[in-house]
Fold each of these.
Amino acid sequence: MSFPPTRERETQELIKRFQAKRARQRRVRLVLAGVVCLVVAAAVLTAVAVAGSDEGGGSAFSSSVTSAPNSAPPTSPRQEAAVAVGVTTTSTAGSATTSTGKTTTTTDKTTTGDTAIPTTSGGPATTSSTTTTSTAKTPSTETTATVAPASSAKVVVIDPGHQAQGDSSLEPVGPGASEKKAKVSSGTAGVVTGIPESELTLAVGLKLRDALKAHGIKVVMTRTSQNVNISNSARAKIANEAHADLFVRIHADGSDNSSTNGIHVLYPVSIKGWTDDIAGASKKAASLAQQALIAATGAKDRGIDARSDMTGFNWSDVPVFLPEIGFMTNPAEDQLLASGAYRDKIVKGMTQAILQYLGLK
Ligand SMILES: [Zn+2]
């Protein structure tokens, strides 16, 4: 069958146009494939770079641990205990030393390079899920906080003491200890206001968080609500895993004597294998806090106290202090502590002390 010449020419043109179109499509596909290759290559290079810095961090951990002024005691109760309670991740020996060993600020800086995470305020769960997005080092995630703060920022963990309801089940007072204490008590309460200590410490803790964040400090809260159940050792572990530069445990006091009033700050006594590596720095922070709190509030100065019996101190691998911000059993002080203005004074004093301690002022 033959087409008239004009039909044939039209057919030829159609075929040419069709072929040209196919060629264009091939070129487009080639270009697209090229672009995809480039994107994949860039992603791989980035991943390699990140993994490389993690490894660098890992080796820095071991070197910082070996060069730490206080090496672990022969029996190393903290290491055993830390493994037993599952503080470590399943990844490598390197990360195991990070959480069990005596971390110093050097270690903090090596870990901080990984991810720039916005300041955490939502508690441990949020932070650990964010960290999983970083490449190496996080093959498994623990339930407690793992924080990778921005490179230069200092990290402060704030623990508002107690919680709505205490938990009288027991836990060891320190790593490997046979002596046990209640996991967390419900605290005291305002003799006039009826405000529970846990509510006061949370309100002050949240104010302190905001004040520190305003100074560029990364803040991790052990809790931001009343209805939690976090033992004192678990709170210390949150601070350890956050590689906190400072761990601040806010409490208020109670006494049988309603005339007793004033502020004092507690810090850990040096116990070999537990707190010997943090006692000095903790005492320094406690002294600064005591001075600044008295100056800011005008409260009675009750001085600082070294304590050996506090679970939240004995489990801590980072410098820690505990301000007892006043006596809720003293009518006048209870009412002061209930006021926003007085809470602001407390926060002002503590912020000043923390900035001083961290060398930011
Ligand atoms: Zn308390």
Amino acid sequence: MSQKQRKILLGISGGIAAYRSLELIRLLVKGGHLVRVVMTPNAGHFVTPLSVETLSGAPVSMEMFGRRGEAAIEHIDLATWPDVTVVAPATANILGKFANGIADDLLSTTLCALRQDIPVCIAPAMNTRMWTNPAVQRNLSLLRSDLGRRLTVVDPVEKLLACGEWGVGAMAEPTTIFETILSCFK
Ligand SMILES: Cc1cc2nc3c(=O)[nH]c(=O)nc-3n(C[C@H](O)[C@H](O)[C@H](O)COP(=O)(O)O)c2cc1C
């Protein structure tokens, strides 16, 4: 392992690209990093907690009000743990919540509770019309203009999307996201 071991909190939200976050977990673990994953309940429609747990080697956090032995207040525990936080894929919904301080599930509440100095990487993925929707772009601008926060957006790429349309909106390659995460420490 050439890089120092990092604690990486990965948020997975409910988009079709969620299956590609499995590859991202694999790259991170292979790189020797510690990975904890928070999935939105909607992400559970796209990838199973079992796959995520198997690849990350750690229990997945998903429920806001789940009963937990060790951590009494899980979103605070999660928010204070990482060296870097990544949301991949980031849905239009989670972007809007993060940008506006909305905290109505475990992932959005954890993002709301993050320390300002923890670097955050966001990899949006959505249909082109969602991506170009002025409200979505406004939320991204809000996040980008939060100067107190070290936030990097790994922009989506143009290709044939899962919905069958051609356009910008596909999640960046897991290798690109992986390199962006590590570049936060340079
Ligand atoms: C098949 C399918 C694919 C979807 N893909 C995306 C997507 O790539 N990006 C996105 O922003 N929303 C996508 N959605 C819509 C989200 O799942 C929906 O907005 C949901 O509320 C997101 O919840 P979450 O952000 O809490 O995970 C998709 C929905 C379905 C049914």
Amino acid sequence: MLNPLAWFDRGAPKIELRRFAGAASHQELLGAPICVAHLTDLHVGRVTPVPIQMAAVDLVNRQDPDLVVITGDFVCHSQEYLDALTEVIEAFDAPVIGVLGNHDHWSGASEVRRALRRGGAEVLDNANTIITLGHERLQLVGLDDAYTGHADIARAIKGLRRDVATLGLSHIAEEAERLWPQGVPLVLSGHTHAGQVTLARLNELALGRFVGHRYIHGLYGSREEPPPHGAVYVGAGIGAAVIPLRLGERARREVTLFELGYHPGAFDEHHNPQEALPGRPPSERTVQERQLAVARKQARRERRTKKG
Ligand SMILES: [Fe+2]
């Protein structure tokens, strides 16, 4: 049964296409540009009808990127739509690489990983890899979800090379600050949905002041300064987990193209890099509670499976 809230998602979905240059170091290390399409928070499930994710896939395919990266929250509270998720991933023309988000851990990380791999995606769980696109090599560092306490930077950067153009993926944007000093100049992320309501900067009030995020939506930091500096991009996402309402230009569903190999400023971008908010990291207790929540949900699923 479709969630009654999906009423908000009637009609043709409006998906913004935004375009940014990569970091200066990408230009230094690449012989030819690489186009990376970034999506996040697909939330395939009851709240966001599958035609919306398929419209995003179609928009991406029409841009003909070299690579698609997706930064977590593939599902929405359940495993009921894993076959649909596999179909969505399969529909991308370019290779797909992703990292998991909190919803994936809440719903069952192993099952979500399996669905993604069935669709042909590579999942980076605190790992890095070098892929060849045309004649160019790109190194990707993928952090597992930090919200639920699964991020392990030391593992993720093991064997990382400084002489290959590198892109970081992390569901939670604040983790970028720990990747920059390791030579990861640009990190793509999600999770916030840009706050979904960006009118009168309500999103900054809610996610910045109350939730404690430093990065709400869009580009922050420096793409030109060497480590320990760096940049992070927070995508507005495609789906929703609770209410699909999105108000304000910055809150719209979004596909973002990163043209690695172009110097920042080489072409017009949607907005200039922004200042980080003060933020407030979660307490040790909060992180522990979030880890326990994942274990509780897993135990509940196992009890249900036994009963059924
Ligand atoms: Fe999330």
Amino acid sequence: MGKSQDLYKKAKKLIPGGTQLLSKRPELFLPDFWPAYYDKAQGCEVWDLDGKKYLDVSYMGIGACILGYADQDVNKAVKAAVDNGSMTTLNVPEEVELAEKLVQLHPWAQMVRYARSGGEAVGVAVRIGRAKSGKDKVVFCGYHGWHDWYLAANLSDDRSLDGHLLPGLNPLGVPRALAGTALAFKYNDTEAFLKLVEDNEVGTIVMETIRNDEPDKKFLQTVREVATKKGIVLILDEITSGWRLNIGGAHLLYGLEPDIAVFGKAISNGYPMAAIIGRQSVMERAQDSFISSTYWTERLGPVASLATINKLEKENVPAHLIKVGRQVKAAWQAASAKYNLPIEIGGIDPLGHFSFKAAEPLVMKTLYTQRMLELGFLATTAFYASFAHQAKQVDSYCQAIDEVFAFLAKAAAGDPKKCLKGPVCHSGFKRLT
Ligand SMILES: Cc1ncc(COP(=O)(O)O)c(C=O)c1O
């Protein structure tokens, strides 16, 4: 099992849950065998603690490393910022430069605030939304992080988040007084949305522009019209959808102009950074509340963001992500048909995923990861495309997909569980948006 699994066993005694992010739990991939820790990473290659090298064709830093690991251009800018001092009593000029860049890319927005992680950035946006509207209630669809405003949805009905997040998620520790302040609707369900906003206490809407399904035009149009008519603040969470289909938020592609948009993850290619951009009349209300934190002023985040956005533009990275994402989806589809193993493919092209339509889908998923790992791939039933996935890497993964589906078909002909070397993986992070 190697040094990584030994370390993970130790971690579980020292760190509740073993990791800081649910999506990085080894049990979600391959219990007892996933190389939980890395020593070094470059491009889309990762070396584990035993010096074994893998090609990462899974989540690429859970969606953060859109250019690839240790990108040279981003690292060069970050190293210079480290040498020049990443934190002082004075502010960093790059946060103004980045704000200018973000409002230039999103002409509907005039002002920008920063945070350093996705969940907290949506928390900031919701605070501003509530400050502006003067109303407590938030309606939302999709996943938006771990904060109280969001988990409050599970206080009144502990299944509200089932279609949006890990089923059965426990809001323990979230004040009961928040019950009824966050209400969920399903993406593209115009009727459900309209019913929720009949309540005049709703002052904020939070949703992703797109995740799995293409947006229904009428749905997006209705959301915008209702928000405008009722003075509700519309927040688009672009933490995962941003920068992959186009430069900036995916909402630019769909002609949907929010009041606030939130970016994280891919905006800085692996360095902590998040941005909250919005209309001046809404963002100014941040000043009437108290939203302030020391490390939101450090230098590496804005510097990494500027270098990342620069490279995304220069190399037209979204076009590349769409192309290789489609190639991998096509390889899954072809292998499924060739070996008669039904699957269901979903997700926007740069963030494709599939599930096995089998009697025991999790057994098949675990076997897929197990066999891929033996072939040198960090793989699961999702592929988050990065710029580091060039033709050579993608072709070799597509070849492995054919090989692994052939193996799975043989396993499925008997008892697939017997081919497993360890326990079945845990069911994943469900975002049925
Ligand atoms: C749409 C969306 N919002 C918010 C978050 C939370 O971001 P973070 O994990 O950086 O707190 C995520 C993370 O997966 C996300 O996909």
